[in-house]
User: Fold this.
Amino acid sequence: MIEIWVKVEPWNKDLVTTALEAGASAVMVPNEKVSDVNALGMITTIAEKGDLEPGKDVAFAEIRCAEDEERIVGLARDKRVVVKTLDWEIIPLENLVARTGNLFVEVNNLEEARVASGILEKGVDGLLVSNPDPAEVREMIREMLSTDCPLELTPFVVEATHPVGMGDRVCVDTCSLMGPGEGILVGNSSRAMFLVQAEALENPYVSPRPFRVNAGAVHAYVMTPGGKTRYLSELRSGDEVLGVNFRGETVSLVVGRAKVERRPLLILRAVGSYGTATLILQNAETIRLMGTTGEPVSVLELSPGDEILGYAEEGARHFGHRIREHIVEA
Assistant:
């Protein structure tokens, strides 16, 4: 996920409070105000005597010519670099995003933030927000942190479901409440993942738990922010997963707990854009996938020919990152 820093120079207590409440990663403040920030809440400070020191941990640079690009690439080898572009020409920023990491861009408004976060469909690593208006800063942080890139969900045609015995499955309990049509993407293969509905619906068996997704067996992949994946078994409190609704809109969700329990399992087989995909889920009527119009459907009610929503991509994954490699996952 993109990091958001807020520039609070000159000092503005309300702006610091906004940064804290909205979820910014750090604030850049005058050196004499570091203790005042610490008194307001826990957040990284950027100052001479702060958590990150300008010059030592963070460099600042402007882009005026090709030589500036080379200097920035050199600086980014061992520290984070905040780049200020004087005319918002996109090509120099594209060159930097393609060549290096540790790249932050100073932005003043929401439009600049959107441009910087979408460069080369990858975006910069972080933003330094220099707008002094707390209301505008809150809106910028909310949009940049709450929404990942939308995903194009596609139909999968169910081939079969059948029991496969006992195994360990994971309930992902998040720190957010989800509703009908919302859940997370899970799959036996990272190339094809199914949208599993949160337990947000009324049923005669258990009370709704709209913060929970009964996601699948421990070996399965789950989509996380930034287009990466994790194994369900790896999730821990404080990690993040990607929340997705049936329209493909996404949001980062903080994991409050990953609950592993031994349960009867079933396997789902369905055909998507790149062939047959599978997912192993708990064998229970309260586990639901998503129909193509957003209607949740129990895994026990699926029949051959039914269509459910998922996400398919070419290529493979290595430690959660997309790669161009031929891998067969049966």
DSSP finds six helices and 21 strands in the chain. The chain has a mean pLDDT of 89. The first strand starts at residue 3 and ends at 7. Residues 134-146 form the longest helix (13 residues).
